[in-house]
């Protein structure tokens, strides 16, 4: 019998009386990809942080390479045992270069001095492994989220780990980058390394996964050979019920034009170039394209997060001047950003404080915030969006990714909206939470609000939108009726330089 690289039994973990793991079992064999699945808050990331030494366990047995671990690991001792983790939330230093991040705390030195040349040369080897063509001396802050995610992967590969934990590694990657990652995974498997793989993009599992273990409500549910199961069965184990429709699309009669964008351009022509389009009341308009096509830059310009060098934004027939997000909010245009932790949330504030932040005028009296009103309004939103939390006073940083995303969305639902923009609204959240986000979008549509969303998942684009604008190299290359198009046509226009 093959000796497991990792084995945990009866693992339990609590945080301030809240049970995060309850009698959980898991094992990893050499040369396999073992997927760990479950809804947000099921305990997946907690278990991985115990294995990688970030958290300590309350009870349970832990084995690495057949040896029982009597004492709790630290990140350093876990690394010494050959355990590496690629965290879901990026764990990089933005002021350092790519090479400096890859070899942080493992720097190359020569006669007592930092050998930056050698370090950059070694970093370049790992970048080339993933077909990355950027300079290892580039500051991390200059890279988009997708490239930063690839640097996280290079960082773990550079540790020569035998046990590799990948927590949502593809959430910010393009299709090409995902293909490159899967080739690396196949190489790692052939070398006898084991990979623990966490992902909410279930459709990609069939390409790499050997076994799946499912957690629900902090408990172990089952372990299955992937070849002997299917996605509907996996989903039913994850949520405890069947989900009849993956994309709950609704039909609503399109209303009048609510938004008109004319000839928007970014400064110096970088990002967006002379983009024009219309959005109608009760319409869901999707933006598709490869990473770097200009989709996020476009919605940030429209919503006042970034400056635009030229162009007009017209809402309900009236020309507006949007220079800041505050200007957009006053005109009824709201944007839920791509990076929820950096741009969408104040993670050191409570759920109530985050939800009511854009609506302080609603929860204030004579310029003073009413805690009673703040609590009342945030509780209503928490119940409406089914946000799982201990209460509205819980800090947002302690919520699961899916619940954090609901808070980002909930912030804007307290106000009268004309246009709501979602940038990658379901990135990194589980299948049940995705459907809840889709239903929120549907509610906006039913209320005659114009909805725009950016998504890198083409099934989501086709499943939820009425119309698709395809972007490439900062320009719109196609305006497609969703009912009359397909993934192949969208990808064709996404590569029309």
Structure description:
- With 497 residues, the chain is of the alpha/beta class.
- The chain has helices at residues 44-51, 75-80, 98-102, 116-129, 145-157, 175-190, 231-239, 295-302, 325-330, 340-344, 351-356, 371-384, 401-413, 431-446, 458-464, 487-494, and strands spanning 6-15, 18-28, 33-37, 59-64, 67-68, 83-86, 109-110, 113-114, 163-167, 194-198, 211-216, 219-225, 257-265, 275-280, 284-288, 310-315, 318-320, 333-336, 364-365, 368-369, 419-423, 450-454, 467-472, 475-481.
- A hairpin with a 2-residue loop joins strand 4 and strand 5.
- Helix 4 (116-129) crosses helix 5 (145-157).
Level of helix content? Answer: 25-40%
Radius of gyration (CA) equals 23 Å
Number of domains: 2
Do you know the CATH topology of the largest domain?
Rossmann fold
Distance between the termini: 54 Å
What's the mean pLDDT score?
88
Query: From the helix content, strand content and strand pairing, which structural class follows?
Result: alpha/beta
Structural shape: globular
